[in-house]
Amino acid sequence: MAKTALVVDDSTSMRQMVTFTLKAAGFETIEGVNGVDALAKSATATVDLVITDLNMPEMDGITLVKELRAKPAFKFTPILLLTTESQEGKKQEGKAAGATGWMVKPFNPDQLMAVVKKVVR
Amino acid sequence: MQIDMSRFRAAFYVEAGEHLQLMEAALLQLESSPRDVELLNTIFRAAHSIKGASTTFGVDEVGRFTHVLENLLERLRDGALEANAPLVELLLSSVDVIDGLIANAKDGAPLPGNLEQVFSELHRVNGTPVADSLPMPTHGPVTESKAGGLFRVHLKPSPEFFRFGQEPLLLIRELSELGTIQKTAIDTKNLPSLSEIHPEECYLSWEIDIATDCAPQSLEDVFMFLDEGSSYRIEAIAASPASAPTMQPTPSAEHTTENGNSHGQRTTNEKESEPDVSKNASPIRSTAATTPTTKAVENETVRVDRQRLDELINQIGELVIGASMVEQELLSIPGGHGLESMAALGKIVRDLQEMSLGLRMVPIAATFQKMNRVIRDVAKKVGKQIQFITEGDDTELDKTVVDQISDPLVHMVRNAADHGIETPEQRVECGKSAEGVVKLRAYQQGGNVYLELKDDGRGLDRKRILEKAIERGILPADSTPSDAEICNLIFQPGFSTAKEVTDVSGRGVGMDVVRRNVEALQGSVSIKSIEGQGSTITVRLPLTLAILDGLLVRLSDEVFVIPLLSVIESICIPTDEIHKIVGVGDVITLRGEVVPLLKLHRLLNIQSRASSDGQRLLVIVEDQGRRMALCVDELLGQQQVVIKNLETNFRKVPGVAGATILGDGRVALILDTFGVSNLGQEDLASARQAVIASHSESVMSPN
Amino acid sequence: MTTLIDKYDVGNSNSSGISQFLTFALNDQEFGIEILRVQEIKNFTRVTPIPNMPECIKGVINLRGTVVPIVDLRKKFAMPSAEYNQFTVIIVVNVGTKIMGLVVDAVSDVLNVGEESIEKTPDLGAIDTSFITGLAKSGDRLVALLNIEYLLGDQFSAPSV
Fold first, then answer.
1. Do B and C touch, counting CB pairs below 8 Å (3 needed)?
2. B288 and A59 in contact by Cβ < 8 A?
3. pTM of the full structure
4. ipTM of the complex
5. 3-class SS at B622?
6. Would you put residue B203 in left (φ > 0), alpha (ψ -120 to 50) or beta?
């Protein structure tokens, strides 16, 4: 069965690119436009991977990671953060919140899949 | 994986535009509340998003610029800089520059002229050299050099290892892809007795011997996401022969261990400082908490490509026509079978059309917001104090109309601020408050949306306008136009009342351009003004450009559609009530008012059949203050028609607003009543010219 | 050399320098239009006139929901007008991004023309020869190949005021 990824970013273009890449690699995708939206959608689906942006309105990425990790269904789910090179400190903050890894923007589909492969079987 | 990044650029351009709008609005608010943390966050987040996406999608110029801007915003957000007036000005210019850079990337528009200047100004404030450009991080193997050998990898996951979504087997598999695993040993000495095992914790550690051609760095990259409680160590057991001398002391392995330790230490620091972190994040958290989860779901939106939406709406338009064709055919079948179901279907189809048109409706708010900036910039430049008020921001209009009204509106608003509102000194002299008020209001009435721009400035200078109109030959020297006529002269081509061409408004375009743009949208514009008290410009726009309520009329064998909005009434009068006035042409008297009569047959070049009944059927219309009587052969009824643009496959035709397809499949032209009245005036003028010509000929010929 | 092919065998021009032209009759002369320009051929139907247009613009028709202008080529070439009959057809062509219909006396067939058998335009008397890219010879037939862009381009721009 195809694995499902929850892709969270307020930027439509980034979300499109990430979901397009994941779909090309055989994933099913669910999209969230911010933390609150993602949290709502996560309640009704079985998710094998979460990829989330950090800076988002309503609820940011780090808060989302904490909220997700507190849910039994997301205790062990790999969560990747989308960061930029200027957010070095955020990686550690995200890791402390329970994120599995991160992806530094800008990245291309190959780089994204290389990182996804590190955290999803 | 071959994925063309440019396919996502269209979405990027749209969202960048939205981010820029957001930034601009927040910056304008920041002027009055420079310490508002939420505003600063909004601005920062928008810039950050633009940067992240632009670099990803290869819009590098935008990325390079936004990177520098982001550095500045970061310092602003952290309180290292203060949002004073010059800085906000710089940031607003930056927004413009990004907008320009995006236009450049998207449509090949010229680069913004102030790019270099703003860029170096940002650098100056940042205190960084201009040469500093966006570092492009590279991913993947950093060192390509062959420096392999036999390594022993020690991996000791933390008990919480799984709680970070990590999986030891994945790490081992990744390692195995880098070389040949020669030995794997599991250390189970930390494994407690079965009764004490917590199934969510990790108790095992591994020791893996791997022979690889890769540099130790590649092995380390496998563990880049390891949580801080976990540790790993890589030691070289035997280096590959080629690199044996340099590889012996395994500096990287030492370093890693150290790194692991420092991670461990940092973990405790991090734990201590955790309350701080959540305190810092608290404003965001509270926003999230006050927003009910369900709201996000309710407001869920789907972005649809504009062209696809237009195609859908067009197809539904076709469906409406198709349905009415079927209806007509059913009517012609004796027995009336199927008429009832057809009526039900027809209703669904019309509802569907209404819904589809609603899809393209957007609020005018974003356009209004743009005007904020326009007013502010003009006021600053010409030293005026202006309060700008908007009303009815949530009034909805067809997206096409909204897109195309923006430029004319900018022009009107600029004019109001530049020419309408007086300087503070002049205002005080006239007994007004130093601060002028410009109010922009939108409201819907019937099938129209009205935009009203009102200022409390000096009003139109009738004397100057009249002088100018005579000087330019727009009016004959002896004419005595009404007050309203004088005011509306400003919409004539080449008419500008500004005493001197200013940097702000005097760009060689006048209100005539505004009028032309508005008319192209099938709207109209008019002005009312009281000298010394201000002016009000009203723009009438159709709700949508796709459908129109029309009155179908017959002229000989042809059917024409007159927009119902301009129709006042239709009357039947005896031919002897039509009078000919020299220089005006045919007129009728309608309740005491003289109304010019336009012979549509003649103006539209249609063979007319002589009517013998001594009666004339007239449709009285009014467009932009011009009232006229149109002579037609028959009224066929009212109908909603789908507007088809003649320009799509042909060109603009004077007097014709577009075409539509009737229920029987025939094409009918939609009249542009204002254009028709212009045709009438041209016709009269050429007739007059002919008279003069023949007259002068007869005078000349004896000589 | 040129060959006549079956009129239903409508293919694209290929890379070997052979182009295909739809040929039609106009006042007993034969003309050709590049087949790639031709969208469809339809029977003459009722045209809605557009006011105050040059005589050659017959008006507009409804082509499956699209409003398409119709040009009478006889009028365009200042030839004597003819009664429309059962052979009169409208050739729907693509000109740039626009669609337009041409009224002609009758369509003949599809002509395969090799580049080498297209001759330069000689003086054709009354007809403005700049509308014609060349002459194709096929047996005893002489077909004038039309440059549609040039021929119809001026119909799209608004009349100068």
1. yes
2. yes
3. 0.49
4. 0.85
5. strand
6. alpha
